[in-house]
């Protein structure tokens, strides 16, 4: 069967009434799960597996895929409104989404997120459909040196992520990296910095840190301003209206970051979280007014939102074309394939074109449904912010507590949440920026591991980093990215003198 | 002043509730004990049966092997009405299982708590990362066996295990082994066992751990040489001519169109096997009558058609062992693993 | 005084980095791996030590706006400590008393404590939200939350 025929079969499945029904069900459950604290696509899909047992495999998988990208779509809501990300892929969306909502433009922020997500999702499905079979080779092209170089490139942006003291930004980053070293070291099996506690053997979950540093620390400031009225009035707050300028501002980042997010999503291990951070940084780097980032910039919200949704579609490339799950969620989906009697692998496309293309084709409909489901709800959801401050504070705290508890079902993590909340509050008080901390935490762990994997493979020779084209290019980019701001500042000083 | 009032009322109410709570749980326990004694008195006539819903713990997150086994067996057991009580699956995730085992250790003496485990319950305590090992629980029944496979890229220079081990004997540093989990855990140890049997210096083996499917990726792109993993993980890659399997760890060749083409190590002259068994355990001091009850139910499950379907979907093999036999098997296996870890210097 | 802030933070961070370094040097080493488990932590520890020393000797360049954040009025300190205390109690009794009871009480009293006066609305909100979330998790999604002393 040729590719065109396959695509047609896929559309036939996706546009059948059952197909449409299951996509709708999937994205509905997905958005809902994404909005709920602590529940991510992994647990949602795992819960669904026994339920779908015996169902038509294509329909079941179309639904689960819907849950996956629906959750990433819905996860931004709490990031933007409460500074409390529900899933890790939407942490970066709070950087500019939350300030925007605090300026009384919650409706606008949610609309930007929804539209960027939709665009990111749709652009990446088009890419997925055209290039999936070819992209399979991209998915496996990254060896440990290339991953190391990619993480290095991400980390060189730390300086650009923050204003103010460079020393403080670096300290934040180093401490974030240190936190990432807690837990069992995969290369030796040694527990590091666990203080003999079982609870720390797996390291600290990213969401615990994000909710602590952002949501809880923010709550402290809300407590101090508890008598001020809430952000914006009821009418204004829910307004979805985007001006032409906004649309114009969004289009660039959405286009670029959909592409970048998609490519990063393809790489096993990278995924939506890393993609959204890298896209945010990339967009800030090329922006004409980078100082607007972090203060409610349209670009700063559109970039991670387009990127995380695009990365979600990208993650289907290795899963569908190679049977390689690059993340926790796709690994659970791989399990779902097995339950349904399918064998995911390089032969799937040939053996079961209706599954392969059906899932991809259904994503078009799924993304449209998500937009249509979400936009009309925005004015209502945005009103959460009109809740009186004291009540809102309690609810944000509740949200964060459940969010953390539902990750690991351990009270220990709740104490950690509180601890990171206090750290986050102190960091703000003394002007230590949080984004470098978070960035070093998510990139640092992977950077260390891929570095040491490379060293083991090469028997300790550093030259392995320069032998591979991908890693060589990425390392050159890192050097440029690191030296560019320094050169720029020297240049401007010379000009002044 | 108001604030203080709010705080103090909050505290008072909590104290009150905590006090009530204590009593409540106590009385619940009493009830449970009453029922248990009732059943125990009726034991002479018909044996033990569960009197309340059964909790099945997967000491791992949703979606993994333990979780799937727990959910699929609970579903089959209740849907085929082998067990009349509800069976709820609870995930106690963390520390490679240690969190779940610590939780189960608290359920000592309970007859309504079960959990799933496999090789890590032997390896993790040996690595010093869990206080509890299989000795602290009651092995009930083993139901599933998985086998490991050693896969290399399709165009690799080795065509069988002996060629690989010959090269490794000459220069162990020239070959990189990749697996999903850390050194001292399953993927690593299964390879080491075979390498040892073939006479390779196991202290010099280069092993890389790569989570998130990094293993298959690294072998496909040539970063690493040998992927040590489960058979199911590589079967499709072999069918697509991307990888080839040098050996499987089972005693005899496996069933299945692709699987049966994989040679065993044994037929290549390396006398070693490795089973990743998976079964059910109860807490310490479980009532022997209850153990017998569950043992029979899991036998029934293992023989049922519904579970045979589950097995074939997941590529699992049948391997039933009753409580006694299981315990003995585990003891022997642990000794065996201990000596290997000792030699590698990984024993805590 | 202002330079004092950086000096103090720098000192605390330096102590932390020394503690971290000490632990890094305690890590077991293995012979079969070229870059061991302690390499990256040792590097990080030294880097942090250097940075914190640099911080001790650096001027406080923060803006006035930023400095204003450091002055917290006494009433706010009390409010913050009160919320932290409520959170601690919540966490401590969470599994004993169960999700519903603790969350209902927490939301109600936390809002009251922070000055929310409409008790009826407060009561409704603090009951409806936790119960709704609990039902979604436990009954719809079959994910257990601590039930505590309640029978469901």
UniProtKB/TrEMBL annotation, chain A:
Q: Does the keyword Transmembrane apply?
A: yes
Q: What is this protein called?
A: Putative tricarboxylic transport membrane protein
Q: Where are the transmembrane segments?
A: 20-47, 59-82, 109-131, 138-161, 167-184, 204-224, 259-282, 316-340, 355-378, 390-408, 414-443, 464-487
Residue ranges occupied by any DUF112 domain in the UniProt entry: 20-439
Return any one Pfam family short name. TctA
The record's keywords, sorted A to Z, are: Membrane, Transmembrane, Transmembrane helix
- Record organism: Gracilibacillus orientalis
From TrEMBL, chain B:
Q: Which InterPro entries match?
A: BUG (IPR005064), Bug_dom1 (IPR042100)
Q: Which top-rank group of organisms is this from?
A: Bacteria
The answer on whether this UniProt entry bears the keyword Signal reads yes
User: Record's Pfam families?
Assistant: TctC
Q: List UniProt keywords, sorted A-Z.
A: Signal
Q: Which PANTHER family match?
A: TRICARBOXYLATE-BINDING PROTEIN, UPF0065 PROTEIN YFLP
Q: Which family does it belong to?
A: Belongs to the UPF0065 (bug) family.
Name of the molecule in the record: Putative tricarboxylic transport membrane protein
Instruction: Provide the taxonomic classification.
Output: Bacteria, Bacillati, Bacillota, Bacilli, Bacillales
TrEMBL record, chain C:
In terms of Pfam families, this protein maps to: TctB (PF07331)
* Positions of transmembrane segments: 9-27, 39-58, 79-108, 120-141
Task: Print the keywords alphabetically.
Answer: Membrane, Transmembrane, Transmembrane helix
Positions of the DUF1468 domain? 9-146
Write down what this protein is called: Putative tricarboxylic transport membrane protein
What species is given as this protein's source? Gracilibacillus orientalis
């Amino acid at each position: 069967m040729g590719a065109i025929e396959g695509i047609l079969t896929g559309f036939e499945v996706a546009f059948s009434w059952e197909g449409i029904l299951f996509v709708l069900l999937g994205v509905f459950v997905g958005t809902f799960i994404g909005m709920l604290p602590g529940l991510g696509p992994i647990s949602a899909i795992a819960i669904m597996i026994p339920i779908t047992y015996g169902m038509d495999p294509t329909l079941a998988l179309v639904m689960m895929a819907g849950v996956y990208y629906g959750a990433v779509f819905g996860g931004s809501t709490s990031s933007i409104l409460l500074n409390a990300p529900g899933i890790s892929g939407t942490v970066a969306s709070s950087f500019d989404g939350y300030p925007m909502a605090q300026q009384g433009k919650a409706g606008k922020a949610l609309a930007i997120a929804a539209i960027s997500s939709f665009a990111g999702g749709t652009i990446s499905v088009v890419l997925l459909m055209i290039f999936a079979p070819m992209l399979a080779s991209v998915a496996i092209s990254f060896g440990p040196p290339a991953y190391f170089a990619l993480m290095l490139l991400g980390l060189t942006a730390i300086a650009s992520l923050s204003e103010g003291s460079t020393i403080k930004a670096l300290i934040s980053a180093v401490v974030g990296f240190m936190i990432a070293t807690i837990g069992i070291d995969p290369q030796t099996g040694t527990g590091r910095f666990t203080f003999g506690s079982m609870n720390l053997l797996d390291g600290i979950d990213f969401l615990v840190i994000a909710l602590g540093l952002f949501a809880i620390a923010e709550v402290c400031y809300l407590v101090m301003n508890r008598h001020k009225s809430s952000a914006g009035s009821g009418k204004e707050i829910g307004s979805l209206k985007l001006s032409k300028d906004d649309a114009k501002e969004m289009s660039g980042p959405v286009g670029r970051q959909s592409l970048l997010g998609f490519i990063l999503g393809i790489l096993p291990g990278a995924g939506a979280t890393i993609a959204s951070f890298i896209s945010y940084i990339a967009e800030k780097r090329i922006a004409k007014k980078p100082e607007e980032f972090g203060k409610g910039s349209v670009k700063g919200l559109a970039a991670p939102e387009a990127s995380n949704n695009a990365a979600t579609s990208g993650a289907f490339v290795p899963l569908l074309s190679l049977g390689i799950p690059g993340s926790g969620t796709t690994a659970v989906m791989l399990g779902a394939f097995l339950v349904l009697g399918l064998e995911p692998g390089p032969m799937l496309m040939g053996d079961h074109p209706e599954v392969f293309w059906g899932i991809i084709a259904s994503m078009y409909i799924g993304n449209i449904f998500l937009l249509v489901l979400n936009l009309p709800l925005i004015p209502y959801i945005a009103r959460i912010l009109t809740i009186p401050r004291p009540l809102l504070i309690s609810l944000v705290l509740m949200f964060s507590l459940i969010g953390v508890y539902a990750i690991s079902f351990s009270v220990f993590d709740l104490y950690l949440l509180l601890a990171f909340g206090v750290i986050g509050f102190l960091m703000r008080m003394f002007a230590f920026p949080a984004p470098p901390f978070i960035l070093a935490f998510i990139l640092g762990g992977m950077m260390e591991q891929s570095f040491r994997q490379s060293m083991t493979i090469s028997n300790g020779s550093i030259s392995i980093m320069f032998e591979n084209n991908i890693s060589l290019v990425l390392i050159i980019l890192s050097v440029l990215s690191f030296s560019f701001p320094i050169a720029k500042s020297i240049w401007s000083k010379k000009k002044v003198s | 002043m108001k604030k203080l009032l709010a705080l103090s009322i909050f505290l008072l109410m909590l104290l009150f509730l905590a006090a009530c709570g204590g009593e409540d749980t106590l009385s619940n326990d009493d009830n449970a004990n009453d029922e248990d004694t009732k059943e125990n008195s009726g034991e002479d006539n018909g044996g033990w049966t569960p009197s309340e819903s059964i909790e099945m713990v997967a000491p791992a997150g949703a979606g993994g092997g333990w979780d799937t086994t727990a959910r699929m067996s609970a579903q089959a057991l209740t849907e085929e009405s082998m067990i009349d009580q509800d069976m709820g699956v609870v995930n106690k995730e963390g520390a490679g299982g240690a969190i779940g085992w610590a939780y189960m250790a608290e359920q000592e003496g309970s007859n309504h708590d079960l959990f799933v485990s496999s090789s890590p319950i032997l390896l993790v305590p040996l690595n010093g990362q869990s206080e509890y090992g299989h000795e602290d629980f009651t092995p009930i029944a083993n139901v599933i066996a998985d086998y490991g496979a050693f896969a290399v890229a399709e165009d690799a220079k080795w065509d069988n295990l002996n060629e690989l081990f010959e090269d490794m004997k000459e220069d162990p540093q020239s070959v990189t082994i990749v697996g999903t989990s850390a050194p001292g855990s399953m993927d690593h140890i299964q390879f080491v066992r075979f390498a040892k049997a073939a006479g390779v210096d196991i202290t010099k083996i280069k092993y890389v751990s790569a989570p998130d499917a990094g293993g298959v990726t690294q072998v496909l792109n040539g970063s690493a040489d040998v992927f040590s993993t489960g058979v199911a993980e590589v079967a499709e890659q072999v069918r697509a001519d991307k990888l080839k399997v040098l050996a499987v760890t089972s005693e005899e060749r496996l069933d299945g169109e692709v699987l049966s083409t994989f040679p065993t190590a044994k037929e290549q002259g390396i006398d070693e096997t490795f089973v990743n068994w998976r079964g059910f355990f109860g807490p310490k001091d479980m009532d022997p009558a209850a153990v017998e009850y569950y043992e029979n139910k899991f036998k029934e499950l293992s023989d049922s058609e519904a579970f045979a379907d589950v097995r074939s979907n997941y590529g699992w093999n049948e391997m039933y062992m009753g409580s006694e036999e299981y315990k003995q098997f585990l003891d022997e296996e642990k000794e065996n693993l201990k000596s290997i870890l000792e030699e590698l210097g990984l024993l805590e | 005084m202002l330079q004092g802030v950086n000096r103090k933070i720098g000192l605390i961070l330096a102590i932390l980095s020394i503690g971290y370094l000490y632990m890094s040097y305690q890590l077991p080493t293995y012979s079969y791996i070229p870059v061991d488990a302690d390499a990256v932590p040792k590097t990080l520890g030294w880097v942090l030590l250097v940075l914190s020393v640099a911080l001790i000797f650096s001027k406080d360049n923060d803006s006035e706006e930023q400095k204003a954040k450091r002055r917290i009025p006494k009433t706010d300190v009390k409010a913050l400590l009160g919320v932290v205390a409520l959170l601690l109690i919540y966490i401590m009794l969470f599994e004993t008393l169960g999700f519903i009871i603790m969350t209902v009480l927490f939301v109600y009293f936390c809002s009251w404590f922070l000055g929310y006066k409409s008790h009826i609305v407060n009561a409704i909100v603090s009951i409806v939200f936790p119960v709704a979330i609990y039902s979604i998790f436990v009954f719809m999604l079959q994910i257990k939350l601590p039930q505590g002393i309640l029978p469901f």
